[in-house]
# Entry
Amino acid sequence: MDTNVILLLLLVPLLGSLVNIFFGKKLGNGSGIIATLAVLISFIVTVVAFVQVNGTKTPIQGNLFEWIAVEKFSISFGFLLDQLSLLWLLFVTGIGTLIHLYSTSYMKGDENYGKYFGYLNLFIFFMIILVAGSNLLITFIGWEGVGLCSYLLIGFWHKNQDYNDAAKKAFIMNRIGDLGFLIGVFILAFLFHSLDYMTIKTALMSGTNHQINTWIGCAALAIFIGAIGKSAQIPLYTWLPDAMAGPTPVSALIHAATMVTAGIFLITRLNFVFDLAPLVQDTIAIVGAFTALFAASIGLVQNDIKKVLAYSTVSQLGLMFMAIGFGAYEVAVFHVITHAFFKACLFLGSGSVIHAMGGEQDMRRMGGLDKYMKVTYITFLIATAAISGFPFLSGFFSKDEILMVAFEHNKALYIIGSIASIMTAFYMFRLVFLTFKKGFRGTQEQKNHLHESPISMTLPLIVLAVLSIFGGLISWPGSSWLNQYLQPVIVKSAANHPHALGFEAYMLMGVATVGFLIGLIWAFRKYIQKAQVPQEDDKITGFHKVLYNKYYIDEIYDKLFVKPIYIIATFFRDVVEVALSGAVFGLGKIADELSLQGKKAQNGNIGLYLFAFVFGICLLLYYLFIAR
Amino acid sequence: MIEILFYILSTITLGSAALTVLSKNPIHSALWLVVSFFSLAGHYILLNSQFLGMVHIMVYSGAIMILMLFTIMLMNLNISHEVSKPFITKLVATVAFCLIGILMLSIVMRGAQTYDLQYATSGQDFQSAHVLGKILLNEYVMPFEMVAVLLLLAMIGAVLISKKDKTEKGA
Amino acid sequence: MENVIEIIGIDKYIYLSIILFCIGVFGILYRRNAIVMFMCIEIMLNSANMLLVAFSTFHQDAEGQVFVFFTMAVAAAEVAVGLAILVTIYRNIGSIDIDKLKNLKG
# Structure
């Protein structure tokens, strides 16, 4: 039974993917429906499994087959559906279904319609493997698989070279992280002779291995580097903003809601390892906080609607890592879920806007869209309020919990996080005001084209907006359902030591609300009362220009890493390879010349051959009988 | 008496062999070769191996030479149409002849000094047809049968090779 | 049983067979007619045969003669196939002058 559940969960998206990739052209519009149904089935299966596990409190486990078996070391192709993975599967397949539905309209008319859904289903398949794998190697398969799908989908419109470059950038940057992941896997395999989560957990909980703490620290650091790559933290974050080259639903699904949270999933999954490495945890918290601030500051001045959302994603992921660094895994998970709701909603809303604008992404060409796109405007506004921390919406609770944890552990990081939150509120409302308020600034042609999106696009928006409002209820401060639910998975669970909902907590909520209001009013004064519009690219000066150019990080990376490697590669190509091939070809030339000369001896004159033959016999006889 | 016979036979053998090589007409070559073979058979008989002498006459002078003569006549080569050979060919052939001859003679002469070439007869019968037949069909029965197969194969091969290709004719 | 080796000596036979062999070598190099070259090969074979017979008598051992027997059989087979090849060559080229057979040219 258990194995059947797992197989059904896995194989339906795979089947959908194969059908769409191979027969997508013939199916036409049917491929979208097939893909959506495939993910929907997975979602239903997940819900059934979730209800079962939530009732019995025992995870569903299933080994499909023994994959690698060496003496003392074996890896089975097994899957583990426990509370954590089911939670992830719920929003991966749930939001996945909505985004598939959305894509059926958004991608309509694209020449590679079938292929698009094939890739999207393949992504869901690999994401399920990543989340449901029972050991690190299975997770690694999923990890690489989603990376591949991300690459394929970023470069989906592969006729544009910039998009291809963005796809390659994402892939290569992920490779750096993947190397870290692999090193971590090797260290863990060396230490425990197993990669199974349960086995490692049991071995660590028994507490007899304290002399290996240094190694555990190394493994944790290496895996954290893997998470950095996948979840776009400093210094490997630059691929995520560029990844917006892909179709907008892809950005919503992969680069906001699901794949980029894989790093947080992995660390939460291995929380028992990270608990033993406090230094690494501090590193995670600091990296997360700085990423949050850094990305938010860049987001302040971006003019591309999707770029703003991308930097916002990086910033929010930074907040999650900060929570993980403080050991508050369930808080990070909570923020992952609420973030998935409102960020997916925001991306889909921006997709709806871009759809209406006929591909235009620059906010300076928009404005006043609220009159044309009521549903999009309202859902977008709700999601914006949620991400900015409007009281009692989902983002308010999750972000507030992170800041509360930060306040308890480290005041400096709390301040950084709060500043990032104020910036978030500012740039998100800046986005809303510039896009939907005041007069329209685009061309007349675009104005005539403006329209509300069809129902298949607005329905996911409405669902996600509702979830953004009420998503916070799963972890109501003081009596958190989520903390109770995740208790079996997380060793040092907060549910074991609940902090009282005292004066301090209310004070922090109040501070957060004030911060939100500061950001909101700042944006309101600037873009509604003064009705400013961001300047054109060439008129930007000063620090604003530095921000607008993303602190020149891409250029610095280019100078620091790409150029030297390029110079070395050029040197090897132009000097070393020429020398080597010269030597090799020279030898070949000599042999060639020798054979050309030797060929002349073979002139076909049998008399000569016979003479050579007799002469040879004479030499042989001389050597055998006289010379010896 | 025997010594004189040996020298006469040897002269005939070498002389006719030389004439085989030197005569311009292939038919003459073949006839001189027959003479050479007969004298060799004489040598065999002189060496008291009469059976082998008879076989030699039958196989070489009979079968092989007839085959050669037949081929020469089939190809219409009875007249000499070999062009006069260039000087270099003659020189090369002479040099090789001298070289290999001197080499082998010197080898034998060096060997003759080390080995005792004295001969002692035991009076036993070892080379009559009776003894040979027994050896051939006892110890050497396997090679004997193999030779039979070889000859059969040679016959089939010769027929196959010299057969005219039918498809080529049509083309 | 009187024996010729006693009277003449084995060394004379060795010299005879060497000279016969050298005549064969000379002929091979001197002549251009393939059939005559064939005959020269026969001369060389026979020089070896004669030496075998002489040594068989010298050692009073019949095996040398058995060997000659087999050599003859192989020679017969060789001549049969070789002449068949020559006939085919003649049919294709119209000559058996080996100077005209230059297909082995590299």
Q: What stands out?
A: The beta strands of chain A are 60-70, 73-81. Chain A has a mean pLDDT of 87. Chain A has three domains: 1-134, 135-548, 557-627.
